[in-house]
Amino acid sequence: MTRFKDSDLTCNAFLGGQVQLLQPLSGYRAGVDPVLLAASVPAQPGQSVLELGCGAGAAILCLAARIPELQLAGVEVQSPYADLARRNADQNRVQLDVVEADLNVLPVRLRSRMFDHVIANPPYYRPDAHSPASDTGRRIALGEKTPLADWVAVAAKRLTPKGYLHMVQKAERLPDILSACANRLGSVEVLPLCARIGRDAELVIVRTRKGGGAAFRLHAPLILHAGDRHTKDGDSYTPEVSAILRAGAALSGFSVQ
User: What is the pLDDT of residues 180-196, one digit of tens each?
Assistant: First the structure.
């Protein structure tokens, strides 16, 4: 895969324009998932954050817009997206160390570091569980190649004691995440994300902590849209979700720690 041409990119505003993100016209494009993931992280200025599978940088740059003075690193296996992440970091005046690598073969400069937070938005679909996208970048971003358990294992190795992992994933993959966390990470909290009241959760954000010993917590769901159905043009986000997406507010669905 080669670097994206400028003519093959769009520049999209996130967080009400606080983040400007170059994305491919044809390929994987960030939606609300990485923005909600970034909003869930209780990082403090001066702390370190690693994103596994950073893509073009949507999640980690949204986090940087909300919390200043973070030490940021991202790992991305696809060369064109790693290049985009670097360009997006420069465009948004954020210092981000982007490493092009398979997460199971991290270079020494990352294997020698520990992080206060690790975030990840791994591919949602198991191999052969969905019709593969024709675009290579989108196919790799959505279809699992590296087992989900490996994402959790690598995150656990890179976390400092009491460090946090935050991961957004399909709700049906929650058993896989919980199994992978066993004997590695504790204090597991799950926040279901529901499109509307009365709908099943399609996604979950999982927070877990290295060395954590608190009991498992299943939180009340975060409802994304007001009403029980779509009735008019335009978005219908609830006030809390709108504040996250438009103004970069923090997500309040988890317990305060």
Answer: 999 999 999 999 999 99
